[in-house]
Amino acid sequence: MLRSWQDAVARFRALLRSDAVGVRAGFVALLLSSGGDLLAGLTLGSITGTLEALPGLLVLVPAAIGMRGNVFGALGSRLSTAIHTGTFQLSTRRDTVVGQNLAASLSLSLSISLALALLAKVISVGFGLENTMSVADFVVISVIGGFLSSIVVMAITVGVASLAVRRDWDLDNVAAPIVTAAGDMVTLPALFLATYLVGVAWVTPVVAVLSAAAGLVALVASLRSRAPILRRIARESLPVLLIAGSIDIVAGLTIEKRFESFLVYPALLVLVPPFLEDSGALGGILSARVATKLHLGILEPRRWRLRAVIEDVLLVFVYAVPVFLLLGVSADIAAAVAGLESPGSLEMIGVALFAGAISTTFAVLVGFYGAVASFRLGLDPDNHGIPIVTSSLDLLGALALILAIVTLGVT
Predict the structure, then answer these.
(1) How does DSSP classify residue 84?
(2) Count helices and strands in the chain by DSSP H and E runs
(3) Is 258 helix (H, G, I), strand (E, B) or coil?
(4) Can you give the residue ranges of every domain in the chain?
(5) CA 224 to CA 227: how far, in whole Å?
(6) What does the pLDDT profile of the chain (411 residues) look like in tens digits?
(7) Residue 52 contacts by C-beta under 8 Å, 6 or more apart in sequence?
(8) Cβ-contact 102, 225 below 8 angstroms
(9) Contact 301, 326 (CB under 8 A)
(10) Residue-wise over 303-331: b if at least 16 C-beta within 10 A, else e?
């Protein structure tokens, strides 16, 4: 046991020496993403009136936010693999690797946004949530908000990849936290803007029909495309994104069911987006690193042992401690500045650390086994690893957060 631990520490130190710049960049990216996600958290904590007026919107929020991270986090992972294998070339032409990746990501974002709207309505009604928004309202908010945010997040993803090439960063360490944070920061305000199209006489039905048509056209065009990379990404990603979206909606339903608790202390609502994002980003870092090792042949997929990537696992836990500690502190400060009621600084820190320990453990397990399972099934873990991790961690992270709140008696 002692020798195994000494070997793990030695391998972790070797990782720090060989990729010191990339490790530091990953840590900075996590901190920046946490800070950025506080804006999303403050937005969520400040629109409690809208959430009350539009029952079911909170069910859609984690799924819509998570989907931007799923689609464009996977894009970042694929671009990272392209960089490592020497096939990356910045271009928007449809016949290039990057061009086909961008087209696939945008079409998936539109079509999955439509699917999320329908799933959110069905699951909300199925689980007994009363007086939810109409199907047209769900479609307008999900598709319009999703499209607006996708344009911005896609530009950020490509920009980060280009910067990683110039600065010689490992994109696996940087892409997941930055892209998922960008998705959180941009998606929630975009969804809020889209709510202004809801309940407007004939405008809402017309926009809903046009949005549904756009989602269907994007779906068919990507699945039947003659571009091989685009078609493969769409066909491989669609099933896992639908599953991921369903999990995210259940996560949203979990939070919606506890909405009264969050109304008592809106500061806890501020904690939700950055906490879920950090949990998913930590798992995304491990998943992306495992995917790259599988593609390069460094990791043997026939063995299901975490010991094979123990240095990467230790890196994730080393990242997690300061990230969740600072998250608890910063969320409490941000809530105080915004005038939102808080249970107290120590309670906020305790919730963040306790829930963070649970969610990080889940992140490691899902990140590793999800990537290896995808590879063994003949699928590209770059297409499946990030969605599996982020959606699973949205649900598991939400459960961990609520468990910590209840266990510590915060509400």
Answers:
(1) H
(2) 14, 0
(3) coil
(4) 2-407
(5) 9
(6) 545 656 666 766 666 666 666 677 667 777 766 776 777 778 777 777 788 788 888 888 888 887 877 788 778 777 777 776 766 666 666 677 788 888 888 899 999 999 999 999 988 888 877 788 889 999 999 999 999 999 988 888 888 888 877 777 667 666 666 776 777 778 888 988 999 998 788 889 999 999 999 999 999 988 888 888 888 888 888 888 888 888 888 888 888 877 777 777 888 888 888 888 788 878 878 887 887 777 777 776 666 676 667 778 888 888 888 889 989 998 888 888 888 888 888 999 999 999 999 999 998 888 888 878 777 777 766 666 667 777 788 888 888 988 898 888 876
(7) none
(8) no
(9) no
(10) eeeeebbbbbbbbbeebbeebbebbbebb
**pTM beyond 0.70:** yes
* CB contact at 8 A, 410 and 343: yes
Q: Is 345 helix (H, G, I), strand (E, B) or coil?
A: helix
CA-derived radius of gyration, the chain = 20
The tokens of 93 are what?
């032409």
Residue 157's nearest CA partner among 101, 96, 240, 213 is 101
Write out the DSSP string of 87-124: -------TTSHHHHHHHHHHHHHHHHHHHHHHHHHHHH
- Give 141's contacts (C-beta < 8 A, 6+ positions apart): 57, 60, 117, 133, 191, 194, 195, 197, 198
83 token code pair: 């960089």
Length of the chain: 411
Half-sphere exposure of 392 (CA within 13 A, CB side): 24
